[in-house]
Amino acid sequence: MLFSIRKKIIFFTVVPVTLLYNLIFGIHLYLSIHQATDTVAKRLTEQVWHYANEVDAYIVNLVQQADIVAGMIGSTSDGLSWLPGDLLLRTLDSNALLRGIGLIWFDQGSGQLEGIQALRYGQSIKVVEGIDTFGSLLVKAWPRVDDDDHSLWVESDSLQNGGKIISYVQPLLKGGKRLGILKLDVCLSDLRVRVIDTNVGQPKFSIISQQGDYLHTDSKTARRAHHHTIFETLDVYGTPGLWDDLSRLIEKGKPVLRKSWIPMREHEYWFFGAPIRSGPWWLITHIRRDVALGMVREQAKVDALIMLISLLLIFTCACLVSDRITRPLTQLKQSMDDFTYRQSYPIIAKMSDDEVGSLAESFQQLLEKLAERDQALHDMRANNIGHLVQKLRGQYFYFNLDEQGRIIHVSPSIQSILGYKPVEFLGPFSRFIVEDSQRELFKEQLQGVLSDNPTTFELEVLHSDGRHRRLEIFWSDMFDVKGSYSIIEGMANDITERINDTRKFKALLDSAPDATVISTPEGIISMINGRAERLFGFEQHELVNMPLRLLTPLNCRSTHPLLGDLGSVSWEQFCLTGFESYGIDRNGRVFPVDITSNPLETDDGLLISMVVRDITERKRIECELTEAKEQAERANRAKGLFLSNMSHELRTPLNGVLGYTQVLLQDREIRAEHEKSLRTIESSGRHLLSLINDILDLTKIESSQIELHPVTMDLREMLSDVRNMLLEKANSKGLVLKVESSSDLPPVIVADEIKLRQILLNLMSNGVKYTHSGWIRMLVEQRGETLYFAVEDTGIGIDKSGLQRVFEPFRQLKSGYMAGGTGLGLAISRHLVTAMGGELTVSSEVGRGSCFEFDIPLEVGNVEDLQGCYRVHRDSYCPELPESWKGQSILVVDDIDSNRDMLARLLEIPGFSVQQACNGAEALEALDQHDFVMVLMDIRMPVLDGIEALRRIRQRPHGRRIKVIAVTASVSQEARSGLLMEGFDGFIGKPFDAAELYELIERQLGIEFKLTRSKQMLSADLDELIARLDKEERECFVQYIREAVEMGDLESLQERVKQFEGHPGFQELNLYVVQLCETMDLEQLECLINKMNVNG
């Protein structure tokens, strides 16, 4: 019950009244404290004003006494010719506040000042003579009195008991002529003690001059620190501006109050001040706020205590009253709870004559009617359940027992299950139980159900024919309708057949070849077979009802999918196939296992069946296979490393051959027969380079390290280059070399140009190699989303047995040995085609030729993305630096003379100034003496290698501005990526390619070479270029040239042909036309027009 009637009474009556009372009392207490604070402040202000007036009255009295004495002395006939010692003694003795009285006069006879004074020493008075006894008073008072004959106050230099001696000086006149001065000494400390009562609150008083000097002070801080002014004390308190506020207000002639927080004391202090008019001085006092309000706070605490006591009284009274009201209702509720939860029918007595008593009588009548209804329902229930159980296919019977375990009712279905009639089964249930141990079990279960702790159990009972039957008993305790005794209501299920099936199932499990474990979704083992006992070393009774975790090592439990509570997971998570984990046996031996599991739906609920197989032997074999594989991979890596090192050693001398060939081919004056010889050298060198690359490609393929680098490329131009590279060899054998492409072939595609060129070169060169007469044709078509290639020849062909071996590395047919080669071309081509997303196939017939086919995915490119023409026509043009770059220096660093010389000559062709160094140390010295825009750095060098030299260059102030290019014979992508990570701006491989070198320089330095032809374009070259052009674009191009030639305006022709720079096939022709315009060669322009018209 979250909110009882009693709580409602308190919440809706007592709480609002209490809160209102607290609010009113709190407001009253606040206002009272505020009013009392103002009253205390006002009283203290008036007290200071009163004390100031009292002090003022004593000072006025002192002044009047001085006037009387002065008058008496001035009224004598002989003035000061006599010494009035007696008068001074009487005057001093008559006023206890006087510390001394004295006279100073000028003696006419001696011409000197004379003086006499009476001084108080404790209880005695002494008269002393002589001007010396007046001290500094003579210096302070005599000149001032001489200036104006008025009385004045003079401060002494001495302090006595916290106060200064103040002297009142009165001039002595007779007939308007000054005779001398009279002085009266008074200590303001005596005046404070006589006038001011400090017992109330113990305030601290100070008498201060208008200049802020202490005349008297009670302040312990000022006295301890020997302060002479109030400014020193206020500085210590941390309130230096307080005196200005007090002085401004006191000057108005009224008492003042100023409140201030003193940081040093961490308290608020009240400062009071009032003027002493006759002084003129000021009376200042201060007191701590909490001390001044001590009585107010004590009264506030008393008021708060009274409020708390009244609240407790209110709350206590409310609780007692609410308890008195709700007690009958609580008793009535308790009786109804007994009926509801304890199945008893209590007798509710009449509690009172009010509404609660009437409610109790109504509840009692309701209970009596419910008892009658429950009795009828119980009789009907027993009859209905008996009939219902009788229809449950003869496996269940319903029964009732009393507290002694005697059957008082049984359903008719008992006859079909145990063969007894219902009447025969009445009586003690234990007489049908077979064994004594089970009779004890029955008694224990009977006591349990009577104790409201029923459980399901099994019993062996006797059938009427003498057989034993297994019964599963379900029962529960219930009271009779009056709640006087218990009736046990039960249901028996004949599970004899199920027990037999279970035994058969266990026998089946024991015969399984693998260990089988059955558990609940909660991870509790329900059953294991004999193989599991032998595998884990446990007996069945030791594992049943134990956690499944017991069979799994500790470090594998967190990752095991079948461990933990699986009651809320889906069935799919129960299904494991070939899950590998580890098991642990009784002796702690850990071994690998293979687990297959499935869920089992049974009458008892969901179970998980697991087949566990020891895979120790299999793991041993796998380890041996893994070790063998690693050994093979190590051997393969060793082979790759050997091939890479050999490639490096071969590329270094080959670099000199190809490099110098390219240098000589740049010579415009070279003779034709020499050019032919150089091209033969270059062709042979490049062929050797391709063989080296084939070996390295095979190494990459076997290591699965093929990487594609797609670029935008001119497809028709690349096909023409492949044909031209093999054309000379084909012509020498009298073969026809054809390249055919469909009209819808896209001019620009995106693909790995190097690998595609390598595939086509391998296939075409094989065709030329194995064909002795006839033709070799390459067919290229677009087929949907793919690009189709076919290379056909009329060569010797391949037999059926050779078709199976033609793609194997280092495998050559008999004809291959005669033709030469490594036997790697087709193997590499097939792997490259596969890497590009296609498949290379072959069909052949001996004596009639072969056909190699493949297709790759087609991706159409943009013309604007095409790269420059160096790569395609590297021998056609010489690069030339812009005028602003001519003479810029480049440093070449290499330990091999031929490499340095060749690079230097290639760099001097465009117009660079080149310097050379043999190693990294010499390169650093050269950088100290000259400025270079670029450094070409070899990696492997004596003294100081290229990488260390680069690090030292980058450490220099301007070292990061210099472009440093790595020159290396390592061709692997990993090696080149490592060089970029070391800090090189780029790299170029050996053997050098002049076109690649010039392209790299353009990219790194951000320049663009001017191109001039190294030699006149041959007629065959023009025919080939013109044949590749689109008809409409060719006609437009010819029209531009014809109009410019007729008008003689070659300058405009150079601008107009630039419109064709982005069109495929026009790059080379544009450069040729520009060169003819620069040389004003109109004859060659007319020849070009005629050739284009003829071909058109």
Count of runs of 4 or more consecutive helical residues:
33
Q: Overall mean pLDDT score? A: 77
Task: Estimate the strand proportion.
Answer: 15-25%
Helix/strand/pairing category:
alpha+beta
- Taking the alpha carbons of the first and last residues, their distance comes to 107 Å
CATH homology superfamily name of the largest domain: Histidine kinase-like ATPase, C-terminal domain
CATH class wording of the largest domain: Alpha Beta
The amount of helix comes to: 40-55%
Brief summary:
This protein has 1096 residues and is an alpha+beta fold. Helices cover 47% and strands 23% of the residues.
Give descriptors for this structure.
1096 residues, alpha+beta, Beta-Lactamase, 7 domains, six-stranded antiparallel sheet, 36 strands, 47% helix, flat, ATP-binding, histidine kinase, phosphorelay sensor kinase activity, PAS, transmembrane
